[in-house]
Design a protein that fits this description.
Blueprint lengths: L11 H7 E4 L3 H10 L1 E6 L5 H12 L3 E9 L3 E4 L2 E4 L3 E8 L13
Length: 108
Amino acid sequence: MSHGPKPAHFDEGRLMQVLVAPIVSEKATMVAEKGNVFTVKVLQDATKYEIKAAVELMFKVSVQGVSVMNTKGKSKRFGRSMGRRDNVRKAYVTLVAGQEINLGGETA
């Protein structure tokens, strides 16, 4: 049984839904500047292989690696009732050197 990369054949409709939203925070910006890393919120059941394929499909860039992290939602109080934030799955996508993703849409 091999543990190597799986064949890159995914349903394109599913890949379009895997990436939920880019994460724009101080930490994400710092990581992006330091190591050519793109941070994105993904579906709860997304795999590293799917995330890599989705980023390469949507942004036409080469991905070096993907690290994934689950963050549990915090409990928050709204007046008398308790609420809960959603659990979030984040992906830190490392791009191949020289590649970049321009989210702003402006050209230099």
